[in-house]
Design brief:
The protein is an alpha/beta fold. The protein is 25% helix and 29% strand. Strands 1-7-6-2-5-4-3 form a 7-stranded mixed sheet, with helices on one face. A hairpin with a 5-residue loop joins β6 and β7 (129-133). α1 packs across α2. The protein starts with a strand and ends with a strand. 28% of the residues are buried. The model has no long low-confidence stretch (mean pLDDT 93).
Length: 134
């Protein structure tokens, strides 16, 4: 699936992605500043998370409670080795049957499940974003 969207369409895009995702682990690829965290915040709202959400750049993982479970948001930008992710129990999170949103998944590629939804984001024309979902 391919989409091009503006900031005003973000909530609609978030809803569509959650509905179309075949897996609860979603990997977000894109350059710094492309809008990965902004999209994830919209997805958190769509799932019913009341917390505004923040990038877990320094904490590596943020947990958000839902009525029937949790959502985990990972940002691996600052890790230097996959061992750091392994030590924080990444595999337990990924196999918990909870939503897991992963920024910078290329840093932990050998630890990821085979079945994940992949989202690639890039900047389009006039500030729009182009998104591919696999």
């Amino acid at each position: 699936m391919k989409l091009e969207y503006s900031l005003s369409q973000l909530d609609e895009v978030a809803k569509t992605l959650l509905e179309k995702s075949k897996e609860k682990t979603i990997l977000f690829y894109g350059e710094m500043g492309v809008g990965k965290t902004t999209l994830i915040k919209a997805m958190l709202r769509e799932l019913g998370v009341n917390d505004k959400g923040a990038s877990p750049t320094f904490s590596i993982v943020n947990e958000y409670k839902l009525g029937n479970g949790s959502v985990f948001h990972f940002d691996f930008y600052r890790i230097e080795t996959e061992e750091e992710a392994y030590d924080l129990g990444l595999e337990e999170y990924l196999y918990s049957n909870s939503w897991c949103f992963v920024e910078w998944p290329e840093k932990v590629s050998s630890l990821l499940p085979l079945n994940c939804t992949v989202i690639e984001i890039e900047v389009g024309e006039k500030g729009s974003r182009k998104l591919k979902m696999k």
